[in-house]
């Protein structure tokens, strides 16, 4: 029997490589200003983006080192060596005190910008959790409780960030407001959100926010979120309204997406085609409950097999999990577990689902799994050990099952994030 695992990993690795800061950032960096470059970065790729910017300005352009300063706030375990930009490792998905230091130091640095300076903001997925500056009257513990409730609700990331933006002093355009005296604010972003909405990437710290406090309150009601009274009060305080289009903060601000899920999905598709597969491209912006999407994709795989097609079914986007059990895992592992449940009688279908940042759920550690892989070997182990995928699924414990089958995908930090890549080979 053919081992499809090397090809599955090659497809995933191509998607990651297409969005790596070392490969993509330099071509988009603006010219050096008369004064300083203040580099502020946030997200899982923040340190890697800052290091790439340093190489460009200090080595390629020969900029005097004293003219470059900044801070990069990234997830724990995602540090890379830098020379002028301080790196702070902070919590993700649960914010922590280090994230407060990163956000507040970034706001303070932005406020020092003069008309001779460039405020260079480098964003990647995870910035919403890494930059944590709670609204006045809200403590870190209260913000953590709100984040936990949002993440367990099953809400899409755009809706999660709508609430986050109205509980923050840095999100929703407020960083641009802090640095509005800079000669120019240039934001370069690696998109990890469906449809590449700028205000959703790291919760839009340098762009106008189309959502409102009323929208945030409506989402709290829709998902029946049980929030601390101080958080509820903050969402009723007009002072916490985010920055809107026309605000002076954006007069000299420019925003550019330098990598997006579509580009990474295209790179993955090319590897599948080169391997001789017909491709079903389901798009880069899929959303929905992981187990429901898996059921739909399993039907597509069965239909292709019945028709005798050699088909690769690929998709990107960000799925969600409504947490009802006590287990471990993330949307990619849950998708893989649901897919295994649907396809366990077929030995000639293999699949991989993993997050391009190298972490799918988990406890915020650098060695958390990126996702899972399934094939005939998986199905045989499930049968041999008498594992019950339905029971694991009911407990949201995909990690527990895949630990026993040996099918977790562990990559370590990839230093970028353009969302998930899912591949089914028929």
From TrEMBL:
Residues 312-420 form the MOFRL domain. One of its GO terms (molecular function) is glycerate kinase activity. Keywords: Kinase, Transferase. GO terms for cellular component: cytoplasm. Pfam families: DUF4147 (PF13660), MOFRL (PF05161). It comes from the Bacteria. Residues 8-235 form the MOFRL-associated domain. InterPro entries: GK-like_C_sf, GK_N_sf, MOFRL, MOFRL_assoc_dom, MOFRL_protein. This is Glycerate 2-kinase.
């Amino acid at each position: 029997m053919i081992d499809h695992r090397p090809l599955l990993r090659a497809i995933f690795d191509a998607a990651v490589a297409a969005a790596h800061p070392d490969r993509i950032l330099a071509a988009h960096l603006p010219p050096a200003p008369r004064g300083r470059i203040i580099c502020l970065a946030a997200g899982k790729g923040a340190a890697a983006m800052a290091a790439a910017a340093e190489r460009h300005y200090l080595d390629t352009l020969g900029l005097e080192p004293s003219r470059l300063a900044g801070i990069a706030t990234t997830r724990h375990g995602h540090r890379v060596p830098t020379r002028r930009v301080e790196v702070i490792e902070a919590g993700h998905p649960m914010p922590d005190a280090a994230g407060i230091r990163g956000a507040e130091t970034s706001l303070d640095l932005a406020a020092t910008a003069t008309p001779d300076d460039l405020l260079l903001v480098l964003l990647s997925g995870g910035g919403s959790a890494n930059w944590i500056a709670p609204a006045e009257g809200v403590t870190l513990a209260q913000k953590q409780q709100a984040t936990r409730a949002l993440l367990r609700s099953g809400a899409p990331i755009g809706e999660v960030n709508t609430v986050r933006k109205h509980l923050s002093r840095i999100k929703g355009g407020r960083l641009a407001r802090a640095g509005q005296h800079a000669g120019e604010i240039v934001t370069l972003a690696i998109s990890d959100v469906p449809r590449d909405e700028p205000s959703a990437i790291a919760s839009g710290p340098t762009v106008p926010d189309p959502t409102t406090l009323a929208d945030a309150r409506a989402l709290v009601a829709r998902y029946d979120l049980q929030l601390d009274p101080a958080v509820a009060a903050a969402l009723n305080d007009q002072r916490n309204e985010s920055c809107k289009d026309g605000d002076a903060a954006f007069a000299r601000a420019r925003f550019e997406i330098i990598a997006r899920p579509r580009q990474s999905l295209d790179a993955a598709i090319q590897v599948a085609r080169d391997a001789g597969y017909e491709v079903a491209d389901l798009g880069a912006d899929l959303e929905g409950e992981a187990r429901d999407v898996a059921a739909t994709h399993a039907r597509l795989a069965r239909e292709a097999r019945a028709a005798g097609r050699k088909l690769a079914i690929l998709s990107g986007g960000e799925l969600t999990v409504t947490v009802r059990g006590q287990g471990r895992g993330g949307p990619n592992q849950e998708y893989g577990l649901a897919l295994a449940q649907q396809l366990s009688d077929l030995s000639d279908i293999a699949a991989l689902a993993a997050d391009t940042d190298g972490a799918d759920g988990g406890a915020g550690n650098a060695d958390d799994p990126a996702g899972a892989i399934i094939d005939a070997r998986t199905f045989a182990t499930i049968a041999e050990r008498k594992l019950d995928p339905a029971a694991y699924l009911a407990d949201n414990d995909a990690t527990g099952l895949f630990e026993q089958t040996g099918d977790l995908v562990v990559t370590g930090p990839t230093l970028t994030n353009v969302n998930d890549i899912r591949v089914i080979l028929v």
